[in-house]
Amino acid sequence: MTKLTDSEILSLLSSGVKAGVRFSDTKLSRERQRVLDYYHGKLPAPSHAGNSKYVSTDVYEAVESMKSTLLETFSASSGIVSFGAHGAEDVELAKQATAYCQHVVFEQNKGTELFSDIIHDGLTARVGVAKVHWDKCVEEIEETFEDQTQDEVAALLEDDEVKLTSLAVDHDDPNLASGTLTRSEDKSQVRITILPPEEFIVDPNIKCIEEATILTHRTEKNRTELLKEGYKKSLVRQLSTSNTLETDRERISRMEPFSSDTFGTGRQALQDATDVFEIMETYAYLDMGDSGNASYWRIVHCGSVILEKEQVDRHPFKTFVPLATPHTFYGNNFAARVIPTQNSKTVLTRSILDHAVVANNPRYGIVKGALTNPRELLDNRIGGLVNVTRPDGIFALPQAPLNPFVFQTIAMLDDHKEQVTGVSKLSQGLNKDAVSSQNSEGLVEQLVSAAMQRQKTCARSFAVQFLGPLFLEVYRLVIENEAKDKIIEINGSFTPCTPSAWRRQRSVTIDLRLGYGEKDRLATEYIQIGQVLAADPAIAHLYGPEQRYNLYKKVLETKGHKNVSEFLADPKQVQPPGMDPMVKAELDIKVQEVAINERKQSTAEKKVSDHAAIEQMNADLKTRITMLEYALKVSAEERKDAEVTNRIEVSQDELELARIAEAKAPQRTQRPTRSYRPTANIRDYNHRLRTRDRATGVGCCQPPSTP
User: Fold this and answer.
1) Domain residue spans in the chain?
2) pLDDT category of residue 200 using cuts at 50, 70 and 90
3) DSSP letter at 578?
4) What is the pLDDT of residue 263?
5) Largest CB tally within 10 Å, which of 71, 74, 309, 606?
């Protein structure tokens, strides 16, 4: 795969650039030069020396009237452009994006002046062109410090944007130092520039700018500016100082009323560092690697030297064509269509003025020898004397009377101009017949609205062609390059935002309610809707404070008031109004009565529950006493049984001991004795115990009955 060399790239670009230059520097340039001459009142020139030099300013009036209408429509307070939200969670971010982009356009780039320039170019040069790009700008501020300690100097240098330039240590106290440092402040921002018509080069055969395969911006830059932009010195030294813009006829015509140099309008180079070069910044689709796929490239070149080339995804140009023609990029020229009217009105008005001059100073016929001193007649002094030799020696030459249709023709030309431009006297408030006390306000608004149809069409073209794409491009540049958090004002409150976190795709919405009185009518409609909703009791629960706030907020925004919080407070942030003191006192008494009744009821319930608890405790106590008594009786019986068993065991042990002792004793004469029967004795003993138990009524194995 073979890459294109610089010479091959320049060869490819030169053909496209030359085609655009030929068209711009010949046909378009002549037309624009002619329009500017008529706009400044330089043409038409007087046909004879000594005739009236009056020039009708129809071109100027038409351009300025249309421009003022569009500027009033798209002023900073109009709020016509807004970004749409993608879901409920995106509403706040959409408001932030709208507010920040409006700040970029109207505050950072002076949007009203930009709109004025591009509308003027569109009306006088067929097309207005704006260049929107991210301008990387770092401003270095030099600061000095004196008698700072080493720790303080180290603290200053902790900032990454601070660089130490010089340092001097105090001889008396080595711990102190003085010096200078450079602080870098990033002031990069979106830059919007309106290009002069002669600096923009495009193929005239394209249908729209999106189809253009090559676009070029040619401008003048000196050697110092190129070096500040970071271009290599070796490349800048090779540049040629040839400059075709210096002698451009269109630029000369535009600068002629303000410059005495009619041969060149370029910047003067006082030194080599200020040598001026014609720099071409071209955006073109090129196949750099012979791969068969072309991509968009930005190439900065001057003559046979390429200063920079980089691949980009889009071009930075936004255009406005007031009178667009289908299937062509260049539309019609608004100002050029008024030139015939200006020529005709100028000729007719000059004839009126010349006739008035001739009527007041007619030409005279003189009989030969009738004047003694011809100088007395030529001086034409007021009240001067003219010596004549005969009374009929001087007579005024007859002249044709003024054509009675001249004034009607001028009025007809004015009507024709209104039809051509769409700017009527009624829309400018100059028609005293329509704007009178006999016509109602509604009728006047209808007449004005009908007379502004062409202006509203032009305004819609400006919004769709230029304003919407401009805000989208500003939004894209912000989210691509803005790394710092910003604080913006939304409805009177300051809100922090992070542009880099916004969604990549965003839709833009344009409010096309344009024209005289349309905003007032819309605000009146909102107020009437609020009155209808407030008067219907059936939907009172649907029309609360928040809905009222939103409606009146919309009214104020429609009227152009951005800071609504100065007039209305958000119901979500307002505490509810206090209660009437009398009603509050009565309510407090009722609350106290309810509290007393609740305490009484709780006391009675507690008394009942306490009594039930006491009864339960008494029953539990009796049960425990009965169980304890039973346990005592069982224990006594067990003790008695244990004693009986113990006595029996003792008796048995004694008998056993006696038997053993008797066995060991010597044999004696036995004498008859009564036999001892232990078993019989035990039975007898148990019998006595049972007899006693029966007498007491308690069995040894029967538990007492529970009361």
Assistant:
1) 1-39+213-314, 138-186, 367-398, 520-577, 581-635+678-707
2) very high
3) P
4) 53
5) 74
